Recover the amino acids of this structure.
């Protein structure tokens, strides 16, 4: 199909894509430099642009910054929005943070089943620190509730992190 597009238009599209990719990388790196200087508001502004393009790492960082109130007013609802976007793309830190928020009742009613589900999902995505909080949240559940949480996690993983809640 792309071959039916005139060569000059294909070249223009490729050039635009390269410019956008370079701009995306530049904003990401500039945001990181701002973050290192503790200029969180500037980092948030730059990462917001990158996150809106669908970048899961920027979405996760924005979620964490909204959670902590770094460079933006502290907001669990905004944290949840960005963390869910990143988690649905398999980003382990976002999946882990959602589990922590459920376990601690931060932005959600405390829900150990959902916490266990998200910790298991984060573990499957390679998050290295799930063992202790997973064990702690699991201890709060009956065996039947734990079986349900495991089934939810398995279904979420099978669906490639879509429609997990």
């Amino acid at each position: 199909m792309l071959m039916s597009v005139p060569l000059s238009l294909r070249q223009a599209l490729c050039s635009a894509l390269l410019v956008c990719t370079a701009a995306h990388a530049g904003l990401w790196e500039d945001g990181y430099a701002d973050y290192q200087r503790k200029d969180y508001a500037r980092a948030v502004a730059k990462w917001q642009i990158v996150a809106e393009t669908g970048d899961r790492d920027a979405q996760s960082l924005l979620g964490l910054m909204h959670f902590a109130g770094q460079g933006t007013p502290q907001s669990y609802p905004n944290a949840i929005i960005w963390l869910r976007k990143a988690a649905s793309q398999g980003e382990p830190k976002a999946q882990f943070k959602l589990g922590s928020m459920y376990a601690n009742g931060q932005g959600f009613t405390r829900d150990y089943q959902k916490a266990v589900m998200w910790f298991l999902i984060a573990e499957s995505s390679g998050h290295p620190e799930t063992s202790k909080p997973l064990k702690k949240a699991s201890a709060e559940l009956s065996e039947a509730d734990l079986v349900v949480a495991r089934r939810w996690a398995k279904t979420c993983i099978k669906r490639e992190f879509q429609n997990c809640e």
